[in-house]
Amino acid sequence: MAKSILKNSFSLCRNLNSPDKFGIDAIGCLTDNPNLYFYYVIDGHGGCPNSDILVKNFQAYVLSLKDTFTQLNNTAQDIQNFFKSLIENFYIEHRGKLRPAAMSILMVIFSPTQIYSAHLGDCRLGKINNKQQINWITYPHNLAMSLNSHTDPQNIEIALRSSIQDNIVTKSFNTRKLKPLSLMTFDIDKTATYILASDGFWKLPENEIKTIIYSNKLSKDSLLFDDISLWGISFI
């Protein structure tokens, strides 16, 4: 049973106020399946009008799938089909509407032995191991990543945080054209804490990331320059 493997989950979402910003970050989950947990984070693109509405509509749409998720089988094919159906049907409902709204999405389903992820844009899945080392598992769909795709992993992380192209998203969800999800499957590491995060969080200094994850809150000294959405999840 999935309920028996979950040790802890916490969420954090902070949105900054700005007169020229249209997007918001958001989080959500579905947990009524006896074998699976579904979590997601969203980053509505601040430069695109109506992105905040698109984000809120996505949250409402996911909640409407509660019964569907409760009956979802714990197989790789069914889980991947769930991701694809979710994003395709949400796109069909909003096709041609709210333009030019756009958002980055990361969706993750945890089973007792596997992790399934699906993403569009620059939200990321990562983990902190029992030696407090951070490893980002998925990579963002942005221009900095495209220009550094053949760079070694350590230098890629530097480029993703310091390049002038790190905020140019190349493959996000919008209502003009549906782009294919990036789907991945991993073995679960029950000694690690998993992180689902928008770029406002994963671009923070590593020490601040650890402080927030281990304290389950922002410190009074946290300096945020962007909205953040975050799930931290650990297992028995």
UniProtKB/TrEMBL annotation:
Source domain of life: Bacteria
Residues in the signal sequence: none
SUPFAM superfamilies: PP2C-like
InterPro entries for this protein: PPM-type-like_dom_sf, PPM-type_phosphatase-like_dom
SMART domains: PP2Cc
PPM-type phosphatase domain segment(s): 9-235
Database matches in Gene3D superfamilies: PPM-type phosphatase domain (3.60.40.10)
A Pfam family recorded for this sequence: PP2C
Protein's UniProt name: PPM-type phosphatase domain-containing protein
Lineage of producing organism: Bacteria, Pseudomonadati, Pseudomonadota, Gammaproteobacteria, Moraxellales
